[in-house]
Amino acid sequence: MPDYQNLKIEATDSSELVIQKKRAVEKLIELREQLSSIPESRLNYNLLLATWNIREFDSGTYGDRIFEANYYIAEIISKFDIVAIQEVNKSLSGLKKVMAILGDAWEYIVSDVTEGTRGNDERIAYVYNSRKVQFGGLAGELVIPPKEERIPDPQNPQKKITKFTSASQLWRTPLISGFSAGWAKFMLCNVHIKWGESEMSRKEEIDHLAGFLTKRSEDPTAWARKLILLGDFNIGDSTSDSFELLTQANYESPQVHDDVTTTVGIKKLQYDRIFIKERADGFEIENGGAIDMFKHLFKDSEEEIYKDLVRKKDGTPAKRYIQWRTHQLSDHQPLWVEFRIQYEDEFLEKIRDANNLNRQQPQGGGAT
To answer: How many other CB atoms are found less than 10 A from the CB of residue 7?
Structure first.
């Protein structure tokens, strides 16, 4: 449960802060009722995993998020065991405010900033409840290896040498980390695929990504055999070539997400995805969906309520409330899935069957 202590009104609070505290309490009650449809986290039974692109968290384009917005973000995150987050700003200011609300049991892992204009001053992060999820020690940024080919040696055409050609790296470097929860040991790869370029450029990034991760997950020395690829793919169409590349590489999108959308603009799309690399001992999916954040928070009908706060970083009024509110919550809805992680009965049955089989095998030995 998040820490609600700072929602109590103090004598030193400004009149605006008093208003926000009162409103936040009412809104959190409504939000908690809405989120009650998400299954409860049960130790050693299920894993609640989410991915959320939290818009420019916190770049300050419209100034820092207002007091109450941080509580709404924390409340949503607290419903899950682990959340993969995209668009964390390099300053970490927004993330640290939310972590303070979540409390001491919650921890985070964050990538370095991808340098250059393409990196957009973004980090990628995992936020997780350490009472349920344990960080396994694996954390690395995904770097595509160079292409290798054998060519004639320019100095000696009778011989061949290996030519290395640098691969085009992803605009925002993905973060791979290993975690465990109950019986589950798994790797997460958190990505933010380029937006605004052509479908071909996205396909190229996803092609690099799928190929690299397939080799990594099939490597006998891999940290874990279970791999979940998730984040903001900017793929709105499951019939696109980019989506097809992932399905051909045996990454499966849960059926519970088939009719889900995650963007909040006029055009409803599912840019955010959770792909699972299925194996014989793969996760069993129990449930999943997306969260309609604006059902109770920053509603269309509340524009008048927030009109004095709808401002840009420099303090000048922003033109559109609908745009401003996406910088308070996000322009993406959280996408989530529930996995079953309790397999004691199945494991014991396998041992029993193996033991019975071994008893039926003829014993070695005999006279010499």
So the answer is: 17
* pLDDT band, residue 368 (cuts 50/70/90): very low
Tokens of 79: 């419903």
- CA-to-CA distance for 141 and 164, rounded, in angstroms? 21
Residue of 261, 253, 273 lying closest to 191 (CA atoms): 273
Per-residue burial over 295-306, b if 16 or more Cβ lie within 10 Å, else e, is ebbbeeebeeeb
Architecture of domain 15-350: 4-Layer Sandwich (3.60)
Which residue type occupies 211? G
Q: What are the strands of the beta sheet with 106-110, ordered from one edge? A: 106-110, 122-129, 82-89, 46-57, 335-340, 284-290
pLDDT digits (tens, 9 = 90+) for 187-245: 999 999 876 555 555 677 777 777 777 777 777 777 787 889 999 988 877 777 778 88
- Of 84, 62, 69, the residue nearest 31 (C-alpha): 69
Question: How many residues in total does the chain contain?
Answer: 368
Burial status of residue 322 (CB atoms within 10 A of its CB: 0-12, 13-18, 19 or more):
middle
What residue spans define the domains of the chain? 15-350
Residue 110 burial by CB count (10 A; 0-12/13-18/19+): exposed, middle or buried?
middle
Alpha-carbon span 299 to 264, nearest angstrom: 12
Tokens of 71: 């509580």
Cα distance from N-terminal residue to C-terminal residue, the chain = 70
- pLDDT in the model for residue 117: 57
Angle between helices 241-248 and 199-218 (to 10 degrees): 10
CA 266 from chain centre, in angstroms, equals 24
